[in-house]
Amino acid sequence: MDIQWRKSSKSSDAEGNNCLELAEHDGEILMRESDNPDVIIHTTRTKLRAFLDSAKEGEFDNLA
User: Tell me: the pLDDT tens digits for 10-31?
Assistant: First the structure.
């Protein structure tokens, strides 16, 4: 499976080891951490958009 992973230009680690990477494959959005690339989360574009919107609104700011 040839997946083209992308990461934010705002990743804090110059070596690319401290970032979240995204890819789209077979209609799914895939996510992984660059320092643990074998663990891949599968989701949909709709679910990811809902999560990002909630994060932008501060819904998760009080998590301990």
Answer: 776 666 567 889 999 999 999 9
Distance (Å, whole) CA 13 – CA 19: 7
22: which 2 tokens?
A: 């995204």
What distance in Å separates the CA atoms of residue 13 and residue 36, rounded to the nearest whole number? 15
Read off the tokens for 43.
Answer: 């989701």
Residues 55 and 62 sit within 8 Å (Cβ to Cβ): no
- Bridge partners, 30 (sequence order): 23, 42
Q: Structure pTM? A: 0.77
Contact 34, 21 (CB under 8 A): yes
Q: Name 33's bridge partners.
A: 20, 36
